[in-house]
Amino acid sequence: MTDQEHNNGNYGLDAPLIICSLTVGAVVCLVSAFLIPGELLGNWVVDNIVGSVLLIFFLAFSVTAGYMVWTSKVGKYRERERILDLVSLKSAETILDVGCGRGLLLNGAARRLPDGEAVGIDIWRKRDQSGNDPHVTKTNAIVEGVAERIEVLTGDMRKMPFRSNHFDRVVSNMAIHNLNSPEDRTMALREMIRVLKSGGRFAICDFRNTAEYAHYFACVGVENIQKIGPHYRMFPPVKIITGQKTAS
Fold this sequence. Notes:
Layout: H1 3-6, H2 16-35, H3 38-41, H4 44-87, E1 94-98, H5 104-111, E2 117-122, H6 134-143, E3 150-154, E4 167-173, H7 182-195, E5 196-206, H8 210-219, E6 223-231, E7 238-244
Parallel strand pairs: 1-2, 1-4, 2-3, 4-5
Antiparallel strand pairs: 5-7, 6-7
Helix pairs in contact: 2-4, 4-5, 7-8
């Protein structure tokens, strides 16, 4: 699949409030750098030092905002293929995307499942991703030609509405960190293992708490745990934890 194909869907901006804040900060710094008159500070040297510092902040804010836009529009499409490669999907399997958002990973998985099904679950918080809504997810699935192979549900990852040992694969991308407490994150990880079939593989991509995830999986006897990354196609840089549920 090409990057152009990946961009068929509209998967929004990640952390839109941060991008907006950085953009506003860059504009304020740029304007201030050129509007500070020498008379205001009363010292030509100090005035120029302050102006230079403001320009440095302008560049830092601009580059960071631009990088975040690039990762949202290009980098994350490449990263999703890496995640899906790691779980080795077969054409007739079922996969669960925990915290599916607008369906980037969900629809990417469905592309690889001509005879299977991809299920997504989310609580649709818009502050985590712009336009985060199940209708947008379904629209993206239609655009990508996989609408008949996906199911989208509203639900809490800490208490998922699925029977145990149901899915062949489980994935999650930039979602579990949104749970603030270690206890809540542990509940989500426990649920992921519960709904995964014996011998099934999982992959979790996140920018923080990945050591915590790996430690939990080691404690419950998950096999073949791997820590991969960091990868810089997403912002902040991410790591991926993979493993396999112990065969019973």
